[in-house]
Design brief:
The protein folds into 2 domains: 32 residues; 72 residues, Nuclear Transport Factor 2, Chain: A (Roll). Helices cover 38% and strands 37% of the residues. The protein is built from 2 helices and 5 strands; from the N terminus they run H-E-H-E-E-E-E. Strands 1-2-3-4-5 form a 5-stranded antiparallel sheet, with helices on both faces. A hairpin with a 2-residue loop joins strand 3 and strand 4. The protein is elongated, with a radius of gyration of 22 Å. It starts with a helix and ends in a 5-residue tail after the last strand.
């Protein structure tokens, strides 16, 4: 077999192994993300204060504690004027993101 073809097959084999490794690592990283439904009384004080500010004029539907790669945030689902909104709040009480609630389906 000519040398160029051997090199080509070697490169393809390495690329195949790398693509499998990336697919597997991606699957594991999504498994590391954990979501847990919590109550307002279960969140840290700064998060509770931020959620209470966010729900002014609305109704709190649920709170999800989201943990991923050692970081934790809280997604507060709020119904305001008939529309569900989501506010994502860090453990320090700072709002990371707010807007229309995302569908998980």
């Amino acid at each position: 077999m000519p040398t160029n073809i051997k090199v080509l097959f070697s490169i393809l084999a390495v690329l195949g192994i790398l693509s499998v490794a990336l697919a597997v690592s991606g699957a594991f990283s999504s498994e590391r993300r954990q979501e847990e439904r919590v109550t307002l009384s279960q969140v840290p004080a700064p998060v509770k204060a931020a959620i209470e500010q966010e729900i002014k004029g609305g109704t709190l539907k649920e709170i999800e504690k989201i943990s991923d790669e050692g970081k934790t945030a809280y997604a507060a689902h709020i119904v305001l004027n008939g529309n569900e909104q989501e506010s994502v709040i860090g453990e320090d009480g700072k709002v990371i993101r707010r807007g229309a609630a995302e569908d998980d389906d």
